[in-house]
Design a protein that fits this description.
This protein is mainly α. The protein contains 28 helices and six strands. A two-stranded antiparallel sheet has the order 1-2. Strands 3-4 form a two-stranded antiparallel ribbon. A two-stranded antiparallel ribbon has the order 5-6. Helix 16 runs parallel beside helix 21.
Length: 681
Amino acid sequence: MSGLFFFDASFWSSLGLQLLNGWAGASSLFLVAAGLSLIFGVTRIVNLAHGSFFMLGLYLAYSVSAGLSAALTAGGLGAVLASGLGFWLGLVLTGLAMAAMGALVEVTILRRLYAAPELLQLLATFALVLLIKDAVLWFWGPEDLLGPRAPGLSQSIEWWGGRVPTYNLFLLAMGPAVLVALEGLLHRTRWGSRVRAATQDRSMLSALGQDPAGLFTSVFALGSGLAGLAGALQLPLEPAHLDLDLSTLTAAFVVVVVGGLGSIRGAYAAALLIGLANSLCIWLGTQTVLGVDVSFSKLTLVMAFLIMAVVLVFRPYGLMGKALASVVPPASARTFLHSPFLSGSMDAKTASGQNPSAHSGLWALWGVVLTLLSLPLWVAPESYVWVMAIDVLIAILFILGLSWMMGTGGMDSFGHAAYFGVGAYATALLCLSGAVPLGLALIGGPFLAGILALIFGALCVRLSGVYLAMLSLALAQVIWGIAFEWDGVTGGSNGLNGISAPVWLQSRPHFYELVLVLALVATAGLWRLNQVPFGLTLRASRDAPVRAEALGISVTQIRWLAWALAGSLAGLAGSLFVWAKGGVSPEVMSLHQSLDGLVMVVLGGVGGVGGVGPLVNALGPWSGALVFNELQVELARYTDYWHAAMGLVLLALVLVMPQGIVGIFSTWRPKVQGLLSQARA
């Protein structure tokens, strides 16, 4: 742009219009994020179903508004008046209905999980995501639904040489209005003082004789109602579709974390910052920078995550947030076991995972898992069973490092799919370029994934709890956005195809044998790593980081190396995935892929300390990946609504057997042995 251009009226007019639209979008985003921030501030639950409440609110507003308008018209009102009353009353009723639904979810499901580890809470709310998505699919169908224009606000006004929709101005005003209302509610009412007390110290609230149960229900209802209202307000702007849940959730998460978990003012400031940054990118369009054409409009896909990553690096608790003592649960809550580093109640053999009695029973489970995975050896080469078996083994490799990092290291990652995707794309590009032999292309994937994990790990491992998980999500989404937009290298949304494995691996039995050997070697290596000083110090840094630092252990360095190792294993799985499928697309590094990995880890069981902890780390990924993939296949075979069925299974897992498959086996085995001993006696 030339210097004279800045004095052109059209320059300021277009910039002003774009910023105004960005402000309106920021207000809409704030409505969703405010409810999420409020819920987390009081209950400490990261509600993955919040985006689903937004989506359901949009669908519900579509039907309720249309139904009310038709009923009022049939009752004798004029068409224009009936349409207006039906629309606006439908939005209000939608918000109230979603508030009631939120209260029901809190009372029936989440109230049982306040003392549970964060991972189980996340799994329960992810199950709700699956249930709500299929419920919407069943009731409204798969087609996009476009609502009517807002009665009374369907015009536009002249502003700075351009025209601005009046509905955008209405949304722009809604954000500050809701902010003022929430601030007044929190600072000028008795209910608000209890909410602020619960946000700062829940245990003190209980000690003062205040029952938090009703407070939690009301907060969850208000937060869910805000999400539903935000969805309803989008009715004139965008069609209702089934992908709104996770896309809205990630945007709301970014706003909440950038602003500071639990801070309503911070959420508004973050929404405004992100909204204006996106509008500025759209306004800039494509510009020439240092002789290179840069499409700033494409940056909108990752701008929010770039802002989030930068903020968390320099302000780990967000713009207006602060450290929350209850964000990181104690190790005993995470693993349902007592740590030898804290209690000193276990001897050296138990602490190092060498408890003979624990080994004797769990080796039997090892035999069962390996037997199931060796079944394809007796299957015809052309059978589809080979494809399923290879998929399971690749999934095991994908989550092996994640499970070990979470169990032994106490680090939860929401972006582990980024390393899987980088490994896949690296191998695909090396194969297509022909620059290296195909065998070496397999090494390039985990190597580059490990380099990326070293870079991201240096930023992530300084944090803990939800902040660590959210930063890992932000960094992963940046990588996903690059893969999605970089058409010239990654193929964009179409991905890369036509990749062939080496000739000796094009036989499915041979490919299966390779993946099986790699999975067994990786499992044995991680299990052995838990017995050596590196694994012991990693566990010490998880259970007692201050004490570990005092003993001369570099906690940050230990966690950093563990993060890089887990990323390399995910990259290896991605490399094998490319050869198994013949291609790769950005979906392999999406949030959904990362969530699937977390579900498999929790399904198998997250261990870490005590006699069975290291073996849970070894066995959990095998059983979790096997059961998860088999459940998906079997449920999809019998019903089109298999997501809902999977959600019910996950809820049952959380409420009935939160220890996971291997954990519940370890719990039941002594009881069964006792009953058998009594029977023999």
